[in-house]
Amino acid sequence: MSREVFEGIPGPLQAAFYTILPAMIIWGSFKFADRMRNWERGAPDRRRTTPKNAKRRLADYRAGVYMRTLLRDSAAGLMHSMMYFGFLILLGVTTVLEVDHQLPESLKFLHGGVYQGYVLVGDFAGLMFTIGVVWAIVRRYVQQPYRIRIKTKAEHGIILACMLLIGLSGFGAEMFRIAVSTAEGKDMSFESWSFIGYPLSQLVDGGSLQSLQNWHQAMWVLHVVAFVGFLALLPLTMLRHIFTSPLNMYLKDRDRPKGAMRAMPNLTETSLETFGASVVEDFTWKQLLDTDSCTMCGRCTSVCPAHATGKPLDPREIVLKSGEVMAATASHARGGKVTPPLSVDSEITISANSLFERITSEEIWACTSCKACDEICPVNIEILDKILDMRRYLSLMESDFPAELGNAYRAMENQGNPWGMSQSDRGEWAKDLDVTVLDPGAAFNHEYLYWVGCAGSFDDKNKKVTQSMAKLLKRAGIDVAILGPSEMCTGDSARRSGNEYLFQMLAMPNIEMLNGMGVRKIITQCPHCFNTLANEYPQFGGTYEVIHHSQLLEHLIDSGKLDISDATLEERITYHDSCYLGRHNDVYMAPRNVVSSIKGVDVVEMPRNGTKGMCCGAGGARMWMEETIGTKVNDERAAEAISTGASRVATACPFCYIMLDDGVKGAGKEENEVKVADISIHLLDAIENGERIRAAGAAPLSAPVAGE
Predict the structure, then answer these.
(1) What percent of the chain has pLDDT over 90?
(2) Are 319 and 342 in contact (CB under 8 A)?
(3) Residues 43 and 146 in one domain
(4) Which terminus in the chain has less CB density within 10 A, N or C?
């Protein structure tokens, strides 16, 4: 019970096999080397493996190899798994066969039961691989989901055809090999463990020996040619992601927090002559590796709120277009270029090493910086970093930004806030409350500094949030103080819109003041302030313990410091995830736990929630820009909230509060039908309602109370 590897295959074909395959591997290695030299064009990016991150890196790598992120989409994940693991097993099976072939007779192991198990595994892997390929063909060309349909190119058909040919010709070669041996009078019953090849061989039983031999040789040659074709496609097409994607996953860990932008030097002291990204070399080597790691799956595009509402932004295109420019300007390669990430339309030409040869400013400014694209990417491509780096170039070098954004810039520069309000009015919300307002430079001797933020200080809606939080903190006995007129904008909107100079102009005095006062613990109600203070101020020497108000409220409730034993609301509530609280900082449960702690509430989730939550449309400084193309993002999100049947919508971000409230009202819903408010307002409503019920025996509240 054993077999000859090249049984029935003439010597010249065997020689060709051992010549062509190594030659293709060497050729492909040189092609990959050209790609790797392209990545080296990028700026430094600290992605070192250290004892501290080694375990995490290996876990990320395994996630890439095992395609754990792909499996979030069960259908697509299973399909890819069948192809990927089926192919890997087949490659292993072929390698084992070759090893056995090269061993001396006394050391050969593929015989008896070992061989039967071997062919069983091989046939199973081949079947899974082939089914996966057929499934992929049906999915791409018959079912055609939107994210696949809009980016299907000729190379996809070529790749799938090549892979299908590998599967079918492999079974064909096995089928005729067994049939030939049977026709020669050999007992091939032991091949019955080949549960695909053996039954197929029975179909041609009785054919002439010469005919069967010819068919066997033809199928063998076709199988080898298909595999050689696969090797040729590997470095030239999207198939390269088989190698680059797991590597990209391995490099996921970085030296800055998830929500932080790339650090820049002090712009008042630097000798840099250009800022941001306009040419390939302005990206880091990791950002360039990203472009060769893209699987073109389109998941990033499918979750992009700008794309979904008709804006010109397509996150996948940002990656691919960047890769096209990189590929077309590879001076080190033969002909000055390497193959682009995906086959490029013939009419597209790239005349210079400029990212803006292929990417328009309209695409860049449409982004809300929600990070949904990064979060869903199965291979850890960092799309948002690329967009924000290009924004830096547009803002700082070209002054190419929307006109209305310029108004916000001037307000932040002159008044210290994007609302353009007088700094002297920052503490007006607290005039009737017992809140300590600190003098500039005074020594800080309180438990927490309450960083109110610009929205909480100047926006009428969000003043109610600030007041509600102040009341809740007082109930819990928390010792806080505010800066009042001394507090300036953290600079989030300036930085996310690329104006690093303005950001630093705002951040530096804030850090100097906080450090001088001895502030260590800060409460924020704005996730944008939270992210900037916690994740970005350390880049400039401002390191603080920053807690979002949802986290603090959760702690106060859990510890019993905030008594909510009587808090009640007989209402249905849905919570909207803030992008800068959730995807940028992984805070998802704290606000939900606060809302669900209220007696009587029925908490319902919107279809898109958690890591898949939809942006309100205000992030990335979009709060200060007009939406003139397509549907408004906040209108679409508000419609989703209304569809839950909730009578209350809970937010944990001032921008989200404004946008969703406007969207709900724009949909014709009055506040007594759907009340949009911060979690602190809902919580205070519930507490005051419970107290009123206990005191007067009144019926449970179903209409707004607090902050009216």
Answers:
(1) 81
(2) no
(3) yes
(4) C
- Angstrom distances, CA of residue 586 to CA of 63, 120, 427, 546: 19, 45, 31, 14
Q: Which of 234, 204, 232, 206 is nearest to 219 (CA)?
A: 204
End-to-end C-alpha distance for the chain, whole angstroms:
86
User: What is d(CA 609, CA 606) in angstroms, rounded to the nearest whole number?
Assistant: 6
Question: How many residues comprise the chain?
Answer: 708
Tell me the pLDDT tens digit for each residue of 253-297. Answer: 888 999 999 999 999 888 888 999 999 999 999 999 999 999 888
Tell me the C-alpha distance between 469 and 558, whole Å.
17
Residue 543 backbone zone (phi > 0: left; psi -120 to 50: alpha; other: beta): beta
> pLDDT, tens digit, for every residue of 333-376?
888 889 888 778 878 889 999 999 999 999 999 999 999 999 99
Helix or strand or coil: residue 648? strand
CA distance 238 to 257: 30
pTM above 0.85, yes or no: yes
Confidence of residue 708 (pLDDT cuts 50, 70, 90): very low
* Residue with the two structure tokens 């860049």: 364
- Decide if 267 is inside a domain: no
DSSP readout, 453-517?
HHHHHH-HHHHHHHHHHHHHHHHHT--EEE-GGG----SHHHHHTT-HHHHHHHHHHHHHHHHHH
Tokens representing 459?
């926006």
Phi-psi region of 224 (alpha: psi -120 to 50; beta: other; left: phi over 0): alpha
pLDDT reading at 449 higher than 90: yes
Pairing status of strand 602-604 against strand 572-575: parallel
Residue with tokens 């960047």: 322
Same domain membership, residue 230 and residue 291? no
Which residue range is the domain that position 586 belongs to?
565-696
Residues 237-245: what's their mean pLDDT? 91
Other C-beta atoms lying within 10 Å of the C-beta of residue 89: 17
| Same domain assignment for residues 231 and 308 | no
- Residue 176's pLDDT is 95
Contact 493, 625 (CB under 8 A): no
Cα 150 from chain centroid (whole Å): 20
Q: Which of 189, 221, 243 is the last residue of a domain?
A: 243
Asked if 384 and 415 sit in the same domain, the reply is: no
- In sign, the C-alpha dihedral spanning 186, 191, 192, 194 is negative
